[in-house]
Amino acid sequence: MVSLIEINEERGRRRKRSTGRGERTNGTSADARSTTPSATTSSSGNGAEKMRKLLLGIGFWVQGLRCFPWLGVNFFLKDGLKVDSSTLQILQNSANLPMVAKPFYGIISDSYYILGQHRIPYIAIGAVLQAISWLAIAFLSQTGISFFTITFYLLLGNFGASVVEVANDAIVAETSKQPVSSKNSKPSSSGELQSFVWMASAIGGVLGNLVGGVAIDKFSPRAIFFMFGIILTIQFLVTIFIHESSLNLPKTSSSGGIKKQLSELLAALRKPEISYSIAWFAATYAIVPSLIGTMFYYQTEHLKIESSVLGISKVIGQVAMLFWGVIYEKYFKSVPPRKVISSIQVTMAVFMLSDILFVKGVFRTMGFPDSVYVMVFSGVLEALFFTKILPFSVLIAQLCPPGCEGSVMAFLMSSIALAFIVSGYFGVALASFLGVTGNDFSGFPLALLIQAACTLLPLYWSYHVPDPVKSKTNGKDH
């Protein structure tokens, strides 16, 4: 065998000298050189894929599980600090302020490496900040608890969560663009990875709501905060033992820094079809007054609905979102996004009108239990607020110029977060104007009617959203 290899190598050297080209030699040595690296690359690719799924699976599962402690926050504020419904809703929405700065976190992680890595260190930092915030709330003394203290730690926790989400989303985006290194290697499928992280997040949401509803009856909110803090600590420990090189992410250059990244984002946002679409979509949330805090008090204080029922309601909402992902992929992906989003908006208004009948006790007189209505209709309505994000994300992906998808998507998510905050404040102002409090719900039906009307209002400006599918059919390019 050795002699054959030497003969083939000598033939290769002669051929190179005679032709002036570095052609590949024929024979056993060539087969050995071509087969071994291919096998190594395939093995390395499979190992990197497993590490990515481990990191992202835990990350998105914990992201979905965040509903677990937040259900405890509602009861902690209502029963522990005795805050009213308006204050509860202000805190819920104000705590989401760190989510608005997501594009900035993305630009920083793109521009600055930590110990030669630019994704995993940010995930670790975000996880430890969340763990500190929830464990601090769990161990605060009764005299040290105040509305402002809780607000600070919730802001810190959401800051950490937003940093983790941006880093995880960036890994998914980078992996989906990674080229196949070998014909024997399994190609990177963005759809497969997206489905995987969607499932991980949905499972976390279902588990968090299901366990959270039961845990509220058996444990104190502090115990729930402690349990979630331990889960975040585990996520941090797992993350720091993973090196970014094991994920086989594409190498990117950070030359240009923040200024370059920001200029690319601004260039994309100067396109009217992108800026107008995002502005319209954010408006579909911002101009609709959120009455979630008022509804929570109505269900728990006035109707005495148990926390387990609220947990099941949110589980049904998570399951509905999971089914929506499958249904959209199969039946609605080819439908213009504007038409899908408008249909969802109308459906939301119908559910809000149904809430009016619920508050007036119409369903109760028909023999339909309040708990059943809360489990099914309230859960589905809450899910509807998020289902329209999927078709709009598809639209933005079609409109976005190549190379800045990640930053534009981060800007979109931050716009939605800001719109939710404005919606929450709008809801507090509306409830206060109509005299709706935690003890007086006489003006609640009118507030729900105004909410339904505001939900239909953005449809008048839906023409600002382009139809890229139709345009491509007509030979135009947006």
Helicity, in percent? over 70%
Strand content is under 5%
Largest sheet: none
End-to-end distance: 61 Å
Order of helices and strands: HHHHHHHHHHHHHHHHHHHH
Count of helical stretches = 20
* Estimated radius of gyration: 26 Å
Q: Please provide the count of β strands.
A: 0
Mean pLDDT: 79
Shape: globular
User: Uncertain runs with pLDDT below 50, 5 residues or more?
Assistant: 1-41, 180-190, 471-478
Structural class: mainly alpha
Explained architecture:
The protein is an all-alpha fold and 478 residues long. The protein is built from 20 helices and no strands. It has helices at 2-19, 28-65, 67-80, 85-94, 102-111, 120-139, 147-176, 190-218, 221-240, 257-269, 272-286, 292-302, 307-332, 337-359, 362-365, 370-387, 389-399, 405-433, 444-456, 468-473. Helix 2 (28-65) runs antiparallel to helix 7 (147-176), helix 2 (28-65) runs parallel beside helix 8 (190-218) and helix 3 runs antiparallel to helix 9 (221-240). The relative contact order is 0.12. Mean pLDDT is 79; it is low at 1-41, 180-190 and 471-478.
Structural key phrases:
single chain, 478 residues, mainly alpha, 20 helices, 75% helix, 0% strand, globular, disordered C terminus, transmembrane helix, transport, FBT, MFS_trans_sf
Task: Give a brief rundown of this model.
With 478 residues, the chain is mainly alpha-helical.
List the topology elements.
Layout: H1 2-19, H2 28-65, H3 67-80, H4 85-94, H5 102-111, H6 120-139, H7 147-176, H8 190-218, H9 221-240, H10 257-269, H11 272-286, H12 292-302, H13 307-332, H14 337-359, H15 362-365, H16 370-387, H17 389-399, H18 405-433, H19 444-456, H20 468-473
Helix pairs in contact: 2-7, 2-8, 2-9, 3-8, 3-9, 4-12, 4-18, 5-7, 5-10, 5-18, 6-7, 6-9, 7-8, 8-13, 11-18, 13-16, 14-16, 14-17, 14-19
Family: Belongs to the major facilitator superfamily. Phosphate:H(+) symporter (TC 2.A.1.9) family.
Subcellular location: Membrane
GO cellular component, one term: membrane
